[in-house]
Amino acid sequence: MKESTKLTTSNLSSLVGTGAAYDIMRYYTLPDFLGKDAPYLLYLMGKNIARQSDLHQFEEVYEFFQYIGWGDLQLEKEKKKELVFRLSGHIVEKRLHQSVFKVDFRVESGFLAEVTGQLTGDTYECFEEINTKGNYVELTAVRA
Fold this sequence. Notes:
Blueprint: H1 9-12, H2 19-34, H3 38-51, H4 58-68, E1 72-78, E2 82-88, H5 90-97, H6 106-120, E3 124-131, E4 136-143
Antiparallel strand pairs: 1-2, 2-4, 3-4
């Protein structure tokens, strides 16, 4: 990728990828390569992706999640110091119910923490809570 090229929903829509290849790299190859630091480094990878993006409002963030294949993101609750998002959809359901890998949403959490900070001007950390029965993930961005 050129250094000056920012990730946008319009240039992401031109990319072609398969979910299986992405999942193998994400849940098998990278954790094997990164070792015990994998969850932390995957979170930082998500933050880095956000730094390379050019998003100016939450609607663009929701589109970005769809284009990149992370699922359907929507704001569920807004509290004084936190924003609670729900990540759902067919892609999330398939990831939650496959039996090959232990899934996490560290990349998405890191991305959401960084992009929320960019959009609000504050610093955020993001935590994930998987709800297998409901087929969704709750991502809570907490202002630091």
